[in-house]
Amino acid sequence: MNVKFSNRMEKLKTSEIREILKVTQNPEVISFAGGLPAPELFPVHEIKKISSLVLDEMGPESLQYDLTEGYVPLRKQISERMNRVYKTELSEKNILIVCGSQQGLDFSGKVFIDKGDVILCESPTYLGAINAFKAYEPEFIEVPTDDFGMIPEELEKILNQRHDVKMIYVIPDFQNPTGKTWSFERRKKFMEVIEKYKIPVIEDNPYGELRFSGEILPSLKSLDNLGLVVHLGTFSKTFCPGLRVGWICASEHILEKYILIKQGADLHTSSFSQRIISKMLENYDFEERLSKLKELYKKRRDLMIFEMKKKFPKNLKYTNPDGGLFTWVELPEGFDGRKFLEECLKNNVAIVPGGSFFPNGGHENTFRLNYSNMSEEKIIEGINRLSKVLNEFEY
Ligand code: PMP
């Protein structure tokens, strides 16, 4: 049928990861492709009990329409926790509850981007953000990024040349896809540049609390003197993604715009999910839960890195992250990550080719591995299979 779609639909294509995830539904496939948390640590029994409690204590309210901004006690709990963990100075008035931080990304595009505006991002950056922003038809400029984060001198060079930059998108903690974390020095320098040019920053932070070693670093939001930083948080990786509860924190004059967009998009985030999370935070030991997650993910990271060191060819590099869910592999020029994936799938193991994480293409000699979702046995067997493919693959 010949229907006419909007121009923006021409720019959108399905996420490569979603397509790979379909193939990995096959139980024979060992998948290091998705970014899925370990399901064995989902708080199923706790949520069962808490759901009854929520229905007993506030049944009709938890099933009714809610405030667009979100459930006030949960917004208070989040702002207090952010202040403690990330050294911010926020109140519930700075928090809007959204359906996962992915919704925060989409809304950021709606709030800041007109067709043709420039978005600056790390190189590489999160594929889901590239796809969310693409709907608003921006131009992406990738800012050179090294092991310590976005390079402030390079950022400043671009900001000097381009006066149509509307927003900067960054993931300073255990980045998706590289697993890298910005140093404190870099955070400070970055904020100095931002305050000079006064560009809004989207600080996306789904993994910050999953730190295996060292101290949690102050967030960009805590270094934000002018109210330019919009910080995105989520319970997807610390509780479970299925409840779809995340948050946006920003200065009130920016948050107002997001609230308007939220009203038009879906009125509010699930009343029931928000109350379940709020009661979980109230009645259960969140720190203990985080410790269990970090212990398991550290074990899996250690094992994956150990196996890679033992079995992978010596001409490649990979990151050894201090937290989060991913390691990033770089091969010599000429390696084709997409063809490599085809070979991997023939051997029942999956990765994500790194090229998809660069909005302007290139860098096909890279791939991303996830270590949170597979058991220890599968990590060993999966790295065996990958090593076999790598050793036979021509590049
Ligand atoms: N940002 C980043 C960097 C992510 O890795 C993810 C999840 N993979 C999200 C945002 C979206 O997470 P959610 O919507 O579940 O909060």
UniProtKB/TrEMBL annotation:
Cofactor(s) needed for function: pyridoxal 5'-phosphate
Keywords assigned by UniProt, alphabetized: Aminotransferase, Pyridoxal phosphate, Transferase
Top-level lineage group: Archaea
Domain Aminotransferase class I/classII large residues, every copy: 57-386
One Gene Ontology biological process: alpha-amino acid metabolic process
GO MF terms, alphabetically ordered: pyridoxal phosphate binding; transaminase activity
Keyword Ligase: no
Pfam families in the record: Aminotran_1_2
PANTHER family attached to this UniProt entry: AMINOTRANSFERASE, KYNURENINE_ALPHA-AMINOADIPATE AMINOTRANSFERASE, MITOCHONDRIAL
Assembly with partners or alone: Homodimer.
Family label: Belongs to the class-I pyridoxal-phosphate-dependent aminotransferase family.
Entry protein name: Transcriptional regulator, GntR family
